[in-house]
Amino acid sequence: MGTNDKISNKLDDVAGKAKEGVGRATGDRDTENEGKLDQAKSNLKDAGEKIKDAFKK
Questions:
Q1: Domain count, the chain
Q2: Which structural domain, as residue segments, surrounds residue 9?
């Protein structure tokens, strides 16, 4: 996996966690759910990159 992809995925994950926390603190369930969705997208992208790396070998 490329370094840029790793950094991008990690930033997406951190942003999702922050959004989830803000949503939880303010009682805004939509924002909380968006944060969880952002984290899930980050995890899927990370898994996709790992699969691509496995096939390159």
A1: 1
A2: 3-56
- pLDDT category, 34, cuts 50, 70, 90? very high
18, two tokens: 């922050």
For residues 8 and 23, what is the distance between their CA atoms, to the nearest angstrom? Answer: 22
pTM of the model: 0.82
| Tally of CB atoms within 10 A around 44 | 11
Kindly tell me if the per-residue pLDDT of 35 is higher than 90: yes
Q: Which of 33, 44, 39, 46 is nearest to 16 (CA)?
A: 39
> What torsion, rounded to 10 degrees, do the Cα atoms 38, 42, 45, 50 define?
-160
pLDDT at residue 1, as a whole number: 54
